[in-house]
Amino acid sequence: MLQSVLSSFVEPGDKPALNRARYEALSKQIPVMYAIVIIDMLAMSYTHFSYAPVYLTLYLPAILTPVTIYRSIKIYRSRFETLNDAQVRRRLLTINILAAILGAICVGWALALFNYGDAYTKSHTAFFICLTTLGVIACLMHLRQAGIILFATVVCPTVIFLAATDQSVFHAIALNILLVSAAILFIMFRYNNDFTDMIEKQQILEQQSKILKILSTENLRLANLDSLTTIPNRRRFFSELSDRIEERKTSQETFAVGILDLDGFKQVNDVFGHPAGDQLLIDTSVRLRELLDKDEVFIARLGGDEFGLILNNPGSEREVIALGNQICDELLEPFEMKEGSAQVAGTIGFAFFPDAGDTPSVLFERADYALCYSKQNCKGTVGMFTEEHETLIREVSSIAHRLREADLSEELSVYFQPIINTVENRTFSCEALARWHNPILGNIPPNVFIRSAEQSGMVSRLTAILFKKSLDAAAEWPEHVGLSFNLSTYDLCSPESLLNLLNTIEKSNFKPERITFEITETAVMQDFMRATHGLKLIRQLGAKVALDDFGTGYSSLSYLPRMPIDRLKVDRSFIEDIESSQAKQDIMCTIAQLCDNLNLESTVEGVENETQYKILDAMGYHLIQGYYFSKPLQQDELAERLVAECEMPAKKSASGRSAA
Fold first, then answer.
1. pLDDT tier for residue 656 given thresholds of 50, 70 and 90
2. Does pLDDT of 653 surpass 70?
């Protein structure tokens, strides 16, 4: 029954955090409380030893002292125990029960001693009850139920007992004990309310903190995860790369970084739509995860159709290339989607730590360079960054530096290679070819310094100078001779650069109808919409557009009708060995028919001998460019040739067909 009554003085089980906080505070304060009780009890025994019976001054303290010491040790040790909520609640109930029992024993013992001794010992007894009770209540401040119990079992009986004496001094002491105890009890209740509010607020803050931590963890996970493919993203890739470099700097153990780019992905987007492109990226990530061991290869999507790879234990260069070829072969398998079947290829560039670089940025740039080199030379293959690439990078860097410092108006020049109309046996047009002679570097090949200008953002400056020089030279040519000029991707997609070229035409004395701008498939496909807009501006002015290097890119034939072009320029790779290759002859016949069907002119470059010329002439190609007719010429050499042509009679080709 007592336990049932006292259980009502314990916080309910639905407030486990508050009960636990109270018990943790009490476990530190109860040993102090017992120390106060023991010291005060021993002092009482000492002052009453000569007056009271031995069982009151010696036996009872001898029993209570070990009990309180045991309780102190047990509660102190409980601070290092892991208690569940039910155990905490039971221990709080035990504290209340013991407070009632020990309080009753102590007050009974003290009041029993009151009858012995003189006025001083009686005053000591009242003093003992008052101060000890206040000390105990203060130590049990976090448990208001114990305060109520002590007030009921100790203070009230003491006050009644002292009030019942015939001494006014003890009456005053009783009143004093009652008032002070009531005040302490009031303060205790206020403190408990504040403590309860603090714990509840702390609990709310902890819950909010947990929620924020969960959200923060989830946000961090999402921040490092590609939302489309659910594999790590670019940020996570570079973080992993930095960690890997730090781990292996001391050991100098190698690992490899790879960059994978999908060839033909843009066409999938344009033909089937962006949802199909997204699905292809998802399927690509699935194939990579199924093919590669996640413990050995870290896979991330860097953005667009580009993926990053970190090979933990790459082995030899040959093994890395073999793995890269395995990836490329896997990606060549068609992707089946609801819109249809799509096929892409993969090109990969690899770089080794620490040979290629020992920082994340350098290592990534080296792998990216190997990727770009492979895409420029042989798409769909694996490239490894080598010392040769390092030399090329230094050369490009040196060239870019010289380009920035050079007097390009003086150092740049233009050569012209005639495009012959074999029906009329005269020059139809001349392609402008850039040349750069630097006083320090000497003659720099066009493909080298133009690529460097594109990478350093200077190509528009070069284009403007070369185009102006080409127009000035072409102004002296006969009216029937046109000018062909190559535009880079940047020129075509940059409104500022393109408008500058069109303004240059309008300010010149050269008719726009005599100008043909040559652009590559790659330039158009990098940004089809912007490139198409630029080509339309060119044609609105009256100039023509030729698609250069036709057949070497990855564009779909479905793009041809959508491109605002006037001419196809067949790449020289189809002309090499055409004399002995029936396949190449068949391809060239097909291209000729394609041009007829699309009402496009056609030009063939790279014709080196008479046999090649006769084969092409028989197929109906009559705009021919190559060393068989002429090498690139300086302006004065070209002028002499054009004068000589004007003095020669027109000549029909063997087929007798007009120029396509």
1. very low
2. no
At the fourth CATH level, the homologous superfamily of domain 234-385 is Reverse transcriptase/Diguanylate cyclase domain (3.30.70.270)
Nearest Cα to 433, choosing from 452, 419, 423?
419
pLDDT at 355: 87
The closest of 262, 317, 257 to 287, measured between CA atoms, is 262
pLDDT at 12: 56
Structure tokens at 649: 């009679």
Separation of alpha carbons 17 and 191, rounded Å: 17
Does the predicted TM-score (pTM) go above 0.90? no
- 181 Cβ contact partners less than 8 Å away, ≥ 6 residues apart: 133, 134, 137, 151, 155
> Please, is 352 exposed, middle or buried when counting C-beta atoms within 10 Å of its C-beta (0-12, 13-18, 19+)?
buried
Q: Where along the chain do the CATH 3.20.20.450 domains lie?
A: 407-647
407-647: CATH architecture = Alpha-Beta Barrel (3.20)
Closest C-alpha to 439, from 406, 413, 465? 406
Q: What is the pLDDT of residues 38-81, one digit of tens each?
A: 888 888 888 888 888 888 888 888 888 888 888 888 887 877 77
Question: Are 135 and 106 spatial neighbours (Cβ–Cβ below 8 Å)?
Answer: no
**Per-position DSSP letters for 423-468, written without gaps between them:** TTTEEEEEEEEEEEEETTTEEE-HHHHHHHHHHHT-HHHHHHHHHH
Stretch(es) of the chain classified as CATH 3.30.70.270? 234-385
The pLDDT value given to residue 11: 54
